[in-house]
Design goal:
This protein has helices at residues 36-39, 47-68, 88-105, 114-128, 173-183, 190-198, 237-249, 253-263, 270-275, 279-306, 322-334, 344-347, 352-364, and strands spanning 5-10, 15-22, 26-34, 78-84, 109-113, 138-143, 148-156, 159-168, 232-234, 311-315, 339-340. It is of the alpha/beta class. It binds 5'-O-[(R)-(carboxyoxy)(hydroxy)phosphoryl]adenosine and zinc ion.
Length: 381
Amino acid sequence: MADTYILGIESSCDETAAAVVRSGEQVVSNVVFSQFATHGPYGGVVPELASREHLRAIVPVVRQALEDAHQTYQSVDALAVTQGPGLAGALLVGISYAKALAFALEKPLIAVNHLEGHIHAVLLEERQKGNRELAFPVLALVVSGGHTHLYLANQRNQGWSYENVGHTRDDAAGEAFDKVAKLLGLGYPGGPVIDKLARFGDAGAVKFPLSQIKHPDRREKDAPQKGGPRNIDFSYSGIKTSVLRYVETHDMRSSIEARQRALSATKPSIEELRASCDRQTLDLVASFQRAMVNDLVQKTLTAAREFEAATLFVTGGVAANQELRQTFEDRAAREGLPVYFPSRPLSTDNAAMIAAAAYPKFVSGDFSNRELSAEASLRLK
Ligand code: KG4
Ligand code: ZN
């Protein structure tokens, strides 16, 4: 088959992204416009502002992705766009634009699930490195600001199938990083800051009890039968409350407020943030991260055993975390399980993963029609 160039568009949360990917295996261009500056002062994503920023950014971001790829609107073979899950208003910006382009250019339009995109970020880069020898089933941990999900992924003919075998009952792991960073006056998004600051603290200083939920969620219609492998549940709202309690019982409020005042004007560097943190804060940050990492790794490896996974993928924004990668590498190696991560730029939201996930659908002719609309709670099957 001749080379296929797919233009991917992603606008599900606070990144406006466009990319061109060749035949699901080579990133030709990858442009990401992050809205951190807009949402930073609020300590989290403000949906109305996200839609407004996507509207402003989408045309220049797509143009840039085409220019970087030496492609034109006419030369690409198909368009791919994130259908969900995500913020409805934000998704609609990408979908409306992609639909209009596909209609005007008479090109096929392919709808992609954002979570499938995160899984294909790993596949794309492994193919790019020449690795086509993955063992199945793959167990994928998709861990981001909106999701903490485990999927068993299998390749069927040209397409892919996914089975959800674990999810968070409350907050996503990235959400816990963001909320704890906000609580400690460390800014938004919290994950990258905590990742860097944790290196300077003692991870054994504070003990956090994490949830031990392992039984199947009865609300799930597709929960496995009695005696079969058990779904794994995560829960991260408790640890945020534990951090809050620690802050209160250790009188850390005034130093947090002082940091918030000092750092509110500009986006501080890591050196400035580190200088603004006393030992107690650095220890708390390191201990929080250690607890999150241990829980994510332990539960994922439990699922890998339950479902007899042959390969592990760890993907989504939190997969950029240094300690998480290291711990997964060490512990998976002990179990003889190969583990793959996307590069850091493809861990967080991007459109290359959307264009890559669209390729098998292009090959099988799985195209969208003009009725395509945003699905904020779209499930991955
Ligand atoms: O995948 P992503 O860009 O967007 C969603 O689909 O949610 O993930 C963003 C999340 C944020 O919560 C952010 O704090 C977290 O990923 N994150 C990290 C790191 N980089 C981003 N969390 C921990 N360590 C990091 N290095
Ligand atoms: Zn994401």
